[in-house]
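Researcher: Please predict.
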Amino acid sequence: MDAIRTIENINGELNGIVWGPVMLVFFIFVGLLFTVRTGFFQVTRFGLWMRSTFLAIFRHRHIRKTDDRHAISQFQSLCTALAATVGTGNIVGVATAIALGGPGAVFWMWLSAFLGMMTNFAENALGIKYRFKNDKGEWVGGAMHYIERGLKVKWLAVVFSVFCMLASFGIGNMSQGNSIADGIQGAFFSNFSEVYLFGGVTVVKAAVAVVIMIFVALVIIGGIKRIASVTEKIVPFMVLLYLIGGLIIILSNIGNVGYAFKLIFGEAFKFRSAAGGFTGYGIALAMRRGISRGVFSNEAGLGSSVMVHSASDVKEPIMQGMWGVFEVFADTIVVCTVTALSILASGVFSLEGHLAAISASGADLPSAMTGIGLTQEAFKTVFGSFGAPFVSVAVLLFAFSTILGWSYYGERAWTYLFGGGSTAVYKVIFILVIFFGCTSGLSLVWDISDTFNGLMAVPNLIAITLLSGQVVKMTKDYLRTKG
C-alpha cells in the first residue's frame, strides 16, 4: 500500500504540472492555429471532408478495400483509429468529467474537439508526407517520423516514442481493462464483488483480466492486418449499437434536453468559491476535466492515430488529414455528446447532490455517481434492469477495440526505439499489464493515463506547430486543385 501511495503522490504532482493551465492553453492554441490558418477548414469545408470520408465509404470500393497487400484500406485505417479513440473515454470519461468537473466540462470537451479536428488534420497530413516503406514493404509513419525527418530533431522523436509507449499502457490498456472489469462485475456479478483472491483483487476482476488477455493476444499476434480486419467489423457495429441506445434515452427525455444544454453552457463559465466546506465546480476545474477528457477520448494532439493512418493505401496527405477531421467529429461531437445528453437529460445527475458529495468526500464519489456507474444509471431510467448490462457490453466492445488499436501504437513506438526484432517482448508486456489495469483502483488508473497523455502530447504539439507552414501550404495546394 505504501508503494501505491508513493505512486499516487508522484503522479499527482506530475499530473498537476502536465495538465496545468499552460498545457491546456497549448492544446487550445495549436488547434486554433490550424483552424485560423486553414480558414476554419472544419466549418467552411464541411461538405468536402464529409464527401471525402464518411459518404465516400458508400460510393467507392477502394475506400473499403485495398489491393496493396502491405497496406490497409482507408476505411480500415479509420476503424482502427476509431477503435483506439472510441473507447471508455466516450462512456466512462464523459461521465467522470461531468461528475468531477460539472456539466460545464462538456462545453470545454466540445471546444477541444472542434479545434482538435484541425490538430488531427495536421498530424495525419504530416504523417503521410513523411512516411516511408520498411524492408518488408510496409508503410511506416507516425509523429516520431515527422519529428525526425521533417523537424530533424532525433532526440525529440525519441522522447515522443518513450511517452507513446508508456501511454499505450495507460490510455490504451490499464484504463480500458479497468472499465471492462468494473462494468462486468457491477452488471453481472455484483454478488461476487466481495470475494477476493489476494491484495483486494476480486475473483471476477481476475477472471475478466485473464479472458481479455487471451483474446487480445490472439489478435495482436497477427499484426496490423489482423487488427484492422477485426476493428473494421467491431467498430461500426459497436458505435451504431451505442448511439441507438443513447438516442432512445435522449428522445425519451426530450423535454429535458433544453435544460441539459442550459446546464452545459451555464456552468462552463461559472465561478464558484469554497465556503463553509461547500466546494463548487468552477471554470478552472471544468476546463481541466473537459479538455483532458476530450483529449483522452479523441486523442487529437497526442500524435497517436497518425501511426495507423500512415499505414493506409492513400497517397494524398490532405485526404488522410480529412479522415482525421472526421475521426474527431465522430468520436467527440457525436458519441461523447450522446453520452453527456443521456446523463444530463435523464435526471440521474443532480448538480446540488454532486456538489454536496464532493464537498463531503472530495473526488471519492460513490460508483453510481461517477464513471460507468453514472452512465448505467442513465440507461436504467429507460431500459430498467437491462440498462446496466447494455452499458457494460458497450464498454466491453469500446474498451476491447481500444486495447487493440493502442497495442499497435505502442508497438510502433517500441520498434522505433529498439528495432523490429524485439516486438514480441513489447506484446508480452502489453498483455501482462492488462491484468494490473483490470484489478487496480479507478482513480489511480485514470490519473496515470492522464499524465501519460499529457507527456506524450508535448513533443508532438511542439513539432506540428513548427511544421504548421507545411500543412497550410499542402492544404492550399490541395484546395486549389480539388476544392
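Model: Residues 154-188 form the longest helix (35 residues).
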